[in-house]
Amino acid sequence: MVKILTFSLLWILPLSAQNDFISAKKCARCHQEIYDEWATSMHAQATSLKDPLFNGMYQWAIQETGGELESKCIVCHSPMSTVFQKISMEEVYNQEGVTCQFCHGTAHIRGFQSAKNMEVNLDTIYSYHPESDNSPHPVANREFFNNSEICLPCHAVMKNPKDVEVCATGSEWQIFNQKTGKICQDCHMPKLNGSFSHRFTGTHQSSLLTNSVEMDLAFDENTREVKITLTNAGAGHAIPTGTPLRMVMLKLVAYDSVGNLLWQNWEINPIQEDKQALFMKIMGDAEGNAPVPPWRATQTMFERRLMPGDPYSISYQLTSEAIYDVEASLWYRFAPTFILAKLKIEEPHFIRPRLMVQKGMKIVH
After folding, report:
1. Which listed site, 8, 135, 150, 270, has its alpha carbon 20 to 30 Å from 322?
2. E strands, 245-353, in order
């Protein structure tokens, strides 16, 4: 079991030079299949040049904090910046996001606060029990490639400049790991033909979302209540997890015998219309304003998320005798619509909510 460290450790910068950087494209000469997987992953798309949501939030944070956060966020989104101590996106190594050489150049891990805790040696390629025969470069074994330790520096915990914890995937996973023994790679890097997949599957792929939550419906004829039970049966952490922008929304609609809409629990914005159908973390500032962006937060104003294996039930009373059918659906968003509008993000990938699970039921009369 990996223990989540809560204290800061000094990261030791190895002696490096610009020409020590090896592009992922060079790795592809021998590892084409792995490169092709990585190139489509969010690790490859993590930079402010390729991820419009990250870029929008990043630029907003830089502007609002007078540049204070310019070097904070990029540490994990373009982690080679920690090796060469340059955060400019004009540097080729920063343009590749979480690139091959950063993870596979990690010789030691000194903590779980950010990529700065990963000590990189650019002279050797590290992996789990590599085959050294005929390798064109030095290789060495590191056991942490076969457990969650390699993921945790960037995915364990993140605090804002006010020392407020805005995400804590590591502690959520640790509880799950103690019960099941499963590691991050089991879901996000499943083995294909004996090798870990480098697609780093996450919420940007619908397949992971649609297998993460189970839904059950029940109707009480006496009280005319519909009970929806949701269970996080597929994730080893909370749903949603990571940045507090992410949100999951339960939608319940009721129809008459010919399909006319008679009732719905919310129409436009569940944050305002039906918070019991909302699963997310909402941050607030010292004056109680909420939601606020993560860097302004001094407190958590609202939090409800689906924890691994813990059922959560919601009930709605449907008083109309004309209701014949109900349909429940669970949806995922990368960010609230007002944030996307503020950042002028129009890509359908970010604008459209993603369906996680859906079930219908006929009401007996």
Report:
1. 270
2. 247-255, 261-264, 278-284, 299-304, 312-317, 325-333
